[in-house]
């Protein structure tokens, strides 16, 4: 099997992008996972509402803006914005980490470039629909060596064809939103947010492959810069 230098560089970049979160999770996981929801009784939240009621001019406005539903709504929106904040995944929520959580580094900070490029070019970059079973076997067998050396065919698409099939944008988006919605209802979603590793990884892989395909010179330069900054993060994760 022959892999071009560009293909080898893409694989290295992808491995460095995706391996940091699993390693940090393994190094820091304390075995404690909480499934307590935000709808559990919150005495402090109720006391805060009672304290703030006198700030409103009348009872009606106080009940509209300060009520028990507001406790759960605030928790839900706070969790949602944390789970959808890129700072959570590429900068460990610095400079304002969530109190009482590990706030581990999930992806190298420079991989946010691949992530954003993957999002912006999701529609433009598509893998061909798979051929019928019989034709697919013989056509891939006859042209396998040529396709491996072809720069017009995506290396990453060959490695994970199902992920890049037509229509998977909706599947990735739906899966991500479903996971975020469920995690937003938990009081502490630490460790469980690793469920988002897969959809984010798919987007990053798209970004790496698309950037290499459309801007090869910039990709080569940026990848070298990315490797220089990402290796220390990876080494630091191992020596903890």
**Uncertain residue ranges:** 127-153, 163-167
The span between the termini is: 37 Å
List SSEs in N-to-C order.
Answer: HHHHHHHHHHH
Tell me, rounded to a whole number, the average pLDDT: 79
Largest sheet: none
Describe this structure in words.
This protein is an all-alpha fold. The chain has one domain (5-38, 81-238). 63% of the residues lie in helices and 0% in strands. It has 11 helices and no strands. It has helices at residues 5-28, 43-52, 59-65, 68-83, 86-90, 112-120, 133-149, 155-159, 168-184, 197-214, 216-238. Helix 10 (197-214) packs antiparallel against helix 11. The longest helix has 24 residues, at 5-28. The relative contact order is 0.19. The model is unreliable at 127-153 and 163-167 (pLDDT under 50).
Summary, kept brief:
The chain contains eleven helices and no strands. The chain is mostly helical and 240 residues long.
What descriptors fit this protein?
single chain; 240 residues; mainly alpha; 11 helices; 63% helix
Q: Any chance you could write out the topology, listing elements then pairs?
A:
Layout: H1 5-28, H2 43-52, H3 59-65, H4 68-83, H5 86-90, H6 112-120, H7 133-149, H8 155-159, H9 168-184, H10 197-214, H11 216-238
């Amino acid at each position: 099997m022959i892999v071009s230098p560009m293909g080898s560089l893409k694989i290295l970049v992808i491995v460095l992008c995706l391996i940091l979160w699993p390693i940090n999770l393994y190094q820091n996981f304390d075995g404690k996972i909480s499934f307590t929801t935000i709808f559990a009784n919150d005495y402090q939240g109720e006391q805060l509402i009672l304290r703030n009621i006198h700030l409103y001019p009348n009872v009606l406005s106080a009940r509209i803006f300060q009520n028990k539903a507001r406790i759960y709504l605030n928790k839900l929106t706070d969790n949602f914005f944390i789970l959808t904040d890129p700072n959570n995944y590429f900068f460990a929520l610095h400079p304002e980490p969530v109190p009482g959580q590990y706030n581990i580094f999930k992806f190298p900070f420079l991989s946010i470039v691949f992530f954003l490029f993957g999002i912006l070019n999701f529609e433009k970059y598509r893998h061909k629909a798979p051929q019928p079973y019989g034709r697919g076997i013989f056509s891939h067998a006859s042209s396998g060596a040529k396709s491996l050396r072809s720069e017009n065919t995506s290396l990453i698409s060959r490695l994970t064809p199902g992920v890049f099939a037509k229509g998977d944008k909706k599947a990735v988006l739906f899966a991500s939103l479903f996971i975020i919605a469920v995690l937003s209802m938990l009081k502490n979603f630490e460790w469980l947010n690793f469920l988002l590793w897969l959809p984010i990884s798919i987007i990053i892989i798209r970004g790496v492959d698309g950037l290499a395909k459309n801007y090869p010179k910039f990709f080569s330069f940026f990848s070298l810069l990315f490797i220089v900054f990402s290796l220390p993060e990876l080494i630091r994760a191992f020596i903890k």
